[in-house]
Amino acid sequence: MRTKLLLAISCAAALLAASCGAPEQKQPAQQQQQTGSAEPVKRPDQPVKLTVADVAGNLQLTQKAIEKFRDDHKDLVASVEFTRSTAPELPGKIDAQQKAGRVEIDLVLTGTDALAAGASKGLWEKVTDNAKPVLGDFESTLQEPAQRMQQLAEGNGIIVVYYPSGPLIEYNPAKVPNPPKTAQELLDWAKANPNKLMYARPANSGPGRTFLMGLSYLLGDSNPKDPKAGWEKTWKYLAELGQYVEYYPSGTSAVMKELSQGTRDIVVSTTGWDINPRALGQVPKEMKTAALQGFHWVADAQYMVVPKGVSPEKRYVLYELMKYMLTKEAQAQTYDQGYFYPGPAVKDVPLSMAPAESQKAITEFGRPEYESLIKDNPIETPLDANAMVAAFERWDREIGGSKVKK
């Protein structure tokens, strides 16, 4: 509701400004930004060049499949340029391009962070409606938790990967022989071992985000879906914990580097951030993980999102790409080396369908206990867009503050 209201206010303001000056010939992207509508798609007369922006590390899971689509559809795709940015930076960049009438990014690969931030500003087209003639009833092919994650997008994106995520703690067993078993024990450990625990800024970190949202379940807050009025215990806990955190990195990679170097002994993690860095040799294989008692998984997903203002010809190609990305062939690629473990959003895509290198990595670096943890603990969806933005803003203001470092 708030998203629609913000978009309506934006449109009204733009129309009022136009009436006060000389008439201006509006470009298609400007018109679409104001009306919120999208022109009907049109098959391109010649192959198009696509620009794909990744703000979630998603290309690690999907780039090979996107390149295969490119190679198999030379009549539609001339080339694909991949760019990388951060979730907090991208919405402002898209907003500026739309206001200038020159949208230069055709497809965004994002987690719930930039999805929520962009939706709150009205930046994304309602792709589930616009692409329905091509995608059909794709929701029925998704795993049940992935279906809920798709609903969370409120039409702004198409899910491409899903995993139960976290929050987990990852620790060095040589330095932490008896890891904390509860949230209170984790706080007590941090107090007794100042600056030895670390997690990243939630607005740009999957593990940080699941920790932020997962605490409300671990601590028994009154309403885990309401960070404004229902997280009294969570905000108090984070403020106290913050006394023993030296600083908060802006991303998860820096956290894992500190764990590897021995600077930190316990970090916040997820299934993927546990498996993948160890498979890549970035974190020692002997690191261990644990789930705190009473925890709920806070699921995570990554989406294919189309900014408003993309041409009808490019959108025609993007919808065909999305259709391919939801095939079992493309989904099997998302096992990767455990980065988003398991990875596939679509049902009935077992590890045996994945490339041999994926099977080898997950067999060697995966953890047998994850299967039962996923089966035996509730899997919750994250906050909706407005609540997530509010939680990020409050964390930045009250918890992270000047302690966030790039």
From TrEMBL:
Pfam families: SBP_bac_8. Gene3D superfamilies: Periplasmic binding protein-like II. Residues 1-22 form the signal peptide. Residues 22-45 are annotated as: Disordered. Keywords: Signal. Residues 22-34 have a biased composition (Low complexity). SUPFAM superfamilies: Periplasmic binding protein-like II. PANTHER family: PROTEIN YNJB (PTHR42779:SF1). This is ABC transporter substrate-binding protein. The lineage of its organism: Bacteria, Bacillati, Actinomycetota, Actinomycetes, Pseudonocardiales.
